[in-house]
Design brief:
Strand order of the largest sheet: 4-5-2-6-7
Shape: elongated
Number of strands: 7
Strand content: 5-15%
Number of helices: 9
Order of helices and strands: HHHHHHHEEEEEHEEH
Helix content: 55-70%
Radius of gyration: 26 Å
Oligomer: single chain
Number of domains: 2
Distance between the termini: 77 Å
Amino acid sequence: MFNGFKIVILFSLFFCLWNVRAQKIDLKDYENKAQGYAILSAQYSNDAYFIARQNYFLTAASAIRQNCDSAIHFSQIAINYADSAYIVAYDSCLFAKNLIQGAKTYQQKALLRFKQITGTSNSNFIYQLSLEAMYAMGNAVADAYRASLELDWKEGFPIDKKRDVTRLESDEVTFTTIKDLYSKRLEEIKNELLLLEIEKNKNTGRQKQEISNVIAQLKAEQKELLLKSKNSDDKLIQVKNDLSEEMLQIVDKDLFTTEKKDFYSENVPIPTSTVIPKGLVYKVQIGFFKYQLPQKHFDGVFPVSTEKVDNKYYKYLAGNFNKYEDAKEAKNILIKKGYADAFVVSFIDGAKVPISEALKKEKEIK
């Protein structure tokens, strides 16, 4: 009966995006060695996680023990890279250094479980050890990747240094992915617990106790993931706010998009009265309204800013362009999206100017 129940656990993927082994990064491509070491630690942890998950499907103890030889090797490499990331990281990266230490703790736990598997032939014990190794390495992957976002190894690097645009965009993608992974896993745990409670009531004695132990493990994992999910949500909000402000200072047509869904929200409001970058700048005015509109009205459009006019009206502007044709193209896209009143406006050194004057300035710049 318990073997049938195990199928429920087997189909749960602890971080579905990490099930396939990725090609390892080349450390020489990373100026920030602390970040590179953390990513490598995550990648080798993922390899070990993959093996632990494979082991849970296998029935032959000899094949499982043979797999563990590779898992032990990957775990040891992951631990070495975690140590390297911690050592070379600047001391001000306290949060990230704690994360990489946490990853190492999970790696060490998984390593111990892999070693225990090689010393036993008890099938139930092997399955339990493989499950624990899988969860531990899954957590190690998440923590090491998160640490890679915060670690820096340059001496004298200030804690409050603003990251560049590429880093912010990378952070947004990473934390969004982590948030989705946590949400999926939490939903899986919820469903598993419902099934396990039903299964527990059908069993007695040792089998019932084994199911109860798994339920306790899942609840502990659920509690930990809820905390991590909350922390990731907070970090994602911070990253989005920083990214929104940063993009409004960059004049680049490639930053404009109408496909950035669910970016602005109550926690990430559309910036108000932002400073327009120096030089020649074109924007697209999306609309002029008596009342401030909800963020959802402009869902997908990025970057967007709003200004209060005469202390009672609100106008909304999108993008920053240095060429009129680029702004015009963006305007046409917005019109097709339903913003029928969109039109191009121009600024020189922050002051609004007629399009004719802007075009003259653009010609001079060429």
